Each structure stands twice: as C-alpha cells, then as structure tokens.
Amino acid sequence: MPGWFQLFNTPSWYEPGVTLPVLNQAWIPLYALFSLIFFISLYHMIRGEWEWVMIIPFVINIFSTFVFPLIMLQTTHVALLFAWFDLLVMVCATFGVVGVLWRKSRVLSLLLLPYVVWTLIVFVFQTELVRLNLF
C-alpha cells in the first residue's frame, strides 16, 4: 500500500494490506473481460451489424478507467473528490455499456455483471473515503 494512502481515514470494513490488493487483483481479469466484450462489440460495429453509437459508453468507461489512477496519484484530499466524480462517470458508463449491449446480446451484457459489481464496490469505497476525509 502506498504510504500516502495511510494518511487518509478509511472505512471500518477496510483491512490494510487486504482490501486494496484484492480490489486491484480482481480488476485485472475483470477489465480483460470488459476489453474482450469491447472488441467483440467493435467487431460487430465494423461489420455494420451494430450501430456505432454503441461505442460511446465504452469509450467513456475506458477513458475514466485510465484517468482514475492519475487522479489518485495526486495524493491530496481534493484528488479524492475528483476521483469520486471520475468513478461516478465510470459507473454510469458501465451501466450504459450494459444497457446498449442488452439490446444486442444479453449474453455479453450478463457477462459484465461481475465488472458492474466490482465497479460498484470501488465506488462505495471511494464514497466512504470522500465522506470520511472531506466532510
């Protein structure tokens, strides 16, 4: 765990040395699955079978995912709030992806449920960090 993270008040259910590694380790296969679903969807868009507008929530999710660690590395209390807004965008984009996929492939949409759960857990954790450290 980064030393700067220890400066923050954390939720009671946070276990130092356990919570963040578990969330980070879960992220890798879940985001690999998200990426696979993105490329399957992109394939259908390139073939003209699915509308290109479906790419919008994917791109928003991908962008917010890669911006999140850059924000958190700022190591300030204000960065916690910006990271929370970024995660809010990520959660909305994730539900957007599930929504657009549901119309085309319920199987692909349902495959994203573990990613949705993970995103919500991270969002709740970040919400608690903001609540405990800024309000």
What does this structure look like?
- The protein is mostly helical.
- The protein has five helices and no strands.
- It has helices at 19-46, 55-72, 77-104, 106-111, 113-134.
- Helix 3 (77-104) runs antiparallel to helix 5 (113-134).
- The chain is elongated and about 50 Å long.
Q: Could you give the topology of this structure?
A:
Layout: H1 19-46, H2 55-72, H3 77-104, H4 106-111, H5 113-134
Attribute tags:
elongated
Mean pLDDT score, rounded?
91
Query: Number of DSSP strands?
Result: 0
- First and last CA, distance: 24 Å
What is the string of helix and strand elements?
Answer: HHHHH
Shape summary = elongated
The percentage helix is over 70%
- The residue ranges in which pLDDT falls below 50 over 5 or more consecutive positions are none
Q: Please tally the helical runs, counting DSSP H or I stretches of 4 or more residues.
A: 5
Class from secondary-structure proportions: mainly alpha
**Oligomerization state:** single chain
Beta-strand content:
under 5%
Number of domains: 1
Main sheet properties: none
Question: C-alpha Rg, in Å?
Answer: 16 Å
